[in-house]
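Annex B. Sample input.
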Amino acid sequence: MNHPPKLASGLALSLAASLALAACNQADEREYEVGATDEGGGELIVTEPDPDAVPVELPETEMTNVPAGEGEAGTEAE
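Annex B, continued. Sample output.
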């Protein structure tokens, strides 16, 4: 009752399918180069430039903290 030809053909078919899948999955991964320095210690997200994007000019204003007294006054008025 032992059927070695069926076992061998099944094994060969499984091996062929595994090799075919491995050959299809060898696409080169794209590497992105960042044109900025990470000064915040967080993770940078790199995206491709969008040719349809609207150009935006950001102001060069220095950021300052809000004094503690002004932030509390707005919440008491409610």
